[in-house]
Amino acid sequence: MASVYAHRAFMGSATSRPMSTPCMVARLSKVGSTSSRSSLQQRSWRRGASSSSGKKNSSSRSRKPLPYRAESSTQPPSSSSQATAAPSGSIFPKTPSSATPEPVSQLFRTRWLGLFGAGAAALCLGTFTASFWIANRGEAPSYVTGCEPVVPTGRPAIESPVDFDRHLDKSEWRFGITKLRRRLAAEATGHVLEVAMGTGRNMEFYDWDAVTAEYVAAGERNRSKLAKRGWGTKGNIADLLEMETFTGVDISPAMLDIGLRRLRQVVPHGALEDALPKQPSFDQLAAQSPGASGGVQLLRGKVRVLQGDAQSPLPAPPTGVDKYDTVIQTFGLCSVRDPTRLIHNMAAVVKPETGRIILLEHGRSWWELINGLLDRSAKGHFERFGCWWNRDIEHIVEVAQSQIPGLEVVEFQRPGWTTLGTHVWVELRVRNVKPAGSQATGGNESSSGWLGSLGSSWLSVSPPKNGEKKE
Ligand SMILES: C[S@@+](CC[C@H](N)C(=O)[O-])C[C@H]1O[C@@H](n2cnc3c(N)ncnc32)[C@H](O)[C@@H]1O
Description:
Elements (H helix, E strand, L loop, with lengths): L1 H14 L6 H10 L3 H19 L2 H4 L8 H4 L7 H11 L14 H7 L1 H24 L25 H14 L2 H10 L3 E6 L22 H11 L14 E8 L2 H14 L15 H6 L7 E4 L4 E5 L18 E5 L8 H11 L6 E7 L5 H18 L7 H11 L3 E7 L9 E8 L19 H4 L18
Parallel strand pairs: 1-2, 1-5, 2-4, 5-6
Antiparallel strand pairs: 3-4, 6-8, 7-8
S-adenosylmethionine binds next to strand 2.
InterPro entries: Methyltransf_Superfamily, SAM-dependent_MTases_sf
Keywords: Membrane, Methyltransferase, Transferase, Transmembrane, Transmembrane helix
Protein name: Methyltransferase OMS1 mitochondrial
């Protein structure tokens, strides 16, 4: 902007100046021999002329520039002075011979904004190009999913989960992840399972109205629902699908401590304020919640937070329901040792045909340049955040699809340009096909305690080999 402004000012002054004279040319040719210097002089001269010629200059605007030779017809220039002045002679404005060239210091003073902007832009571009070049030098380490040098711990190794959570606040908003979380949570209806829920960063976007219905008068609930989903509901609240129950699973109790704290804050009507302390400890609460099989049970089982390895068969929905309507997972495939196994487990607990598995993940981009950066920084990122951000999510999904009978990719997109194609939104569903000899489990472990079933059912579905694709 500043440079555009400076350019316009420059052009404006140039067009409004009178023509050059041979004496000016001669004087300028004395001032400097290099072209850059002479061009600086030309500009400073014009500025000087502008301030000294005043009104007279405005009348010269319509005048056509005269050729150099016409001016010099009475006194032809010497061959040396012509060589210096001829290229610029035709655009030199006329000015009184007493006008002095503007000094360079004055030039900097009057054009500092444009010069500063151009310098800053050049510096940014240079730094960006250099860092890209440095980051992409040499051979990038290549890892096979699940065989990375450090096996995922399932928990960020950053100072603490609190820091992990805090760190994400600004960056997620900046890169549009918060918006994607909101969009994803709006899809969560019926019995909902969130896998690898972490610190509960999706919690505030779920619709808790049905879960907390007993705390709200029916009329008020309808009003709030209509306000939220104003589009064409025509007041028929009964038809709206709502989140009926919520089950969250994660392997890390420290992450779940924060998840529970967030739950207390976001579930409306203070519905969890009595049940949860301000600084909840997952381990302590789970110990007092014997019915929740490895977790915390709230609002008479409508909200459950469970601890366990999601690579083992996942817990069934609360009593009386067979499978989940929605299975959500955000940034989980990058965090577990065996992401394909995770998709197997999610597919096993979602309602066939109508149920939805919705994933928001990050991994390899469209662009190899970006992938080079991801590869080089992957180990450091893992050490800090506990996940491998250079995994090929598209390939993981393809492998899972080739292995799980009926698994269908409903949607696969890379939303937003701010993440440079590294983030993916995936929706999956399971069609009703019964594969011969399939022993896919999931959905019924809660009766005997979810954690109790770990290990025994671990190999009930033959685990896929990473990178392996069925033909
Ligand atoms: C990158 S964080 C994402 C957390 C959360 N889903 C979010 O969007 O902020 C990955 C989470 O996966 C959890 N996790 C890793 N391995 C797991 C496993 N095998 N079973 C269940 N959770 C796991 C971690 O504890 C961590 O909370």
